[in-house]
Each structure stands twice: as structure tokens, then as C-alpha cells.
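Can anyone check this?
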Amino acid sequence: MQKKFVATAAALAVVSGLFFTGSAASAAPAALSGKGSSFAANAITYCAAHYDPASGDTVTYTSTGSGTGRSEFAAGNVQFAVADGGYTSGYPTTRWVNIPLLGGPIVFAYNKAGVTTTKNVKGKKVKVVTKLPANIKLTASVVSEILKGTVTNWNDTKIVALNKGVTLPDHVINVYYRTSGSGTTANLTTYLSQTLGGGWTANSKDLLASAGGTLASTAKAKATSAVIADLVQADPYGFGYFDLSDAASANVNFASLKNAAGAFVAPSAAAAAKFLNAQAATKDSSNTIEGDRTDGLLSIDFTKNVPGAYQLSIVTYGLAHRNSSAANDIAVKGFFSYVVNTCMPAYAASHGYVALTGALKTTALSQIAAIG
């Protein structure tokens, strides 16, 4: 259908040229490419696949992690990037704009399937399944100790105290975390630093460095959220963090997290929306490249008391060139408008993401307008 449209447009351009001497030919459809956040990969990939503008523009997106997306955009290798946070180094040398696109919760996930063994019962072989209970409750303090390796077993007294009445296995917790450069990790380390009052370097994209150089002895770093989701699904005692969309599509359980109101809340799009809608974006009107570093970004207060909220919820941003009239940049503007106005309202809630509304959506549209 798209090829038919392009062919028709080209034919019309030829015909119009017969009547209007010197008129410009129709612009060729843009072929946009972007890289970045694996947290938002399911959403952005879906939107790219379903984007069908009258211009015939097409979009491809590669999940590489936020850090790679930012560096590829700064180097001019892609037309846009998607990241779970702004630049802290390696800045572009030209003006850019940070655009909130969508939100969602970071999930602490663990294995659901368990271990199947065979036992002899009265001379008969019987299959026995041993698995972790659903909806394990955790606090920021216990999560911190699991990641750092001071809480090492699933039946540690600190986990047991939060989950009375359930049986937890006497087995080491196998930890999976994101490799350096992850925007998901940067938000997690800020959450831990704010909530615990220290012990972690905030806004660090390197979990090991943020923890002071020591993580659990079982900890293994992996490149993307999807890879960690697969590993946790396969490991009977696995534990890791990633987006709700990947958690919902994998055969994993996810923990309920104690929020600032004192309630244990399971990760959901609705609970994340409550938290994110209580946050405000930074507006820098200096109109300088230095101002671009924070303009449009949320300064999230992870300690904010929001009843019913899932506390560890974040926003993913689109990165585009500012004040540009280039055809590719105008095409990026069209795609980001589609993500915020059309794709996410239809897709987000049923797939573990948050579509922007209210003041956050107003900020997003204002930032999109700044592209050109």
C-alpha cells in the first residue's frame, strides 16, 4: 500500500509539473533510524511498525540500551535516539531537545516456573515442583542488600519477615543486572540513593560503580532488558530488574515494592501513572546548548508520597535535533507526535507502559514543537 502511495504521488508530481513550471518535486519519504532504550523497546518498535503517515516515512528502531542510543545520536549515526534519561557526558555538539514519550515501572522480577524433581512415594515416582511464591514483598533496603550481596538466600530472615506465611527456598539468589550505560540502571540507582539516604551513587549508569565496587557474588551483567527477562525466566532462582512489558510477556513473577505511603504495591501501568503524574518536568528557557542538557527532563522525586503509586516508575525520552528545518528532523517530529498522541494512548496500558496525560503530555508536545 505504501509503495502504491509513493508511485501515485510521483505520478501526480509529473502531471503537476506540466501545468506549474518550476514547482518543486514532492519530497522523497524519509527512512528514519533510531537506537536506544531497551526498557521502551517493545513500545517504540510497535509504534515504528504501525506508523503509516501520508508522507510515506518509515521508521526502524534498534534496542541497544540508552547509553548507546545517546552516543549514536550525538555522533550523527541515527536520526533520533530513545533513552531513559538525559546526557551526563558525551553531549551532542549541536542543539537537541529531550522529549518525554512514555512512562512505566521498573520491575524486580524473579522466576515463576520453579524446579521439578521426581520422588519415590510408596513405590511410585511422583513429580514435585518447588518454586518461589507469587507476589513476594520487598523494600528498597532489601533490594539494595540483594544487589550488594549482603542478603544472599531467598529464605534470608529479612525477606521472610516481609513475607510471613509463605515458604521460601534455602537457595542462593542469582542476580542479573544491566551492563554499564543503562538508563534503567541510572533510574534505579537514583531511586536507591534517594530512598535509602545514600549507599548508592545516584544517576549512575553503572550498577557496580554505584554500589561502591561490590555486588552479589552471583551477579551477572547483561546488555538489555529482554536478555535479563529470558535469563530470569530460565533460572529457577533468578532475580533481575527490567520493564513491566518484558516481565508481562515472560514467564516470571514480579515483586510488590513498599512505597512512601507504607503500602506494598505491585507494578502496573495504573500505579506507575499515579506516581509519574505527581512529578514535574524541568523547563530551561535559556535557549542555550547548556540548557538543552536538562530542558524537558523530569527531576523525579522517588521519595514522594503518592497513595497507591508504584514508586520506582520512570519516563523514557526521545532525543531529536532542535530548531531544525531538515527533512529528516521534521520527519522525526511527525513520528514522535504519533507516539505521544496516537500510538501510546492505544497501546501503553495493556502492555505495561504509561501514556502521557495532563501536564506531562503538554510538556511532551511543547518539546516536540521545538524540533522545528
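Reply from J.R.: I decoded it. The first strand starts at residue 31 and ends at 36.
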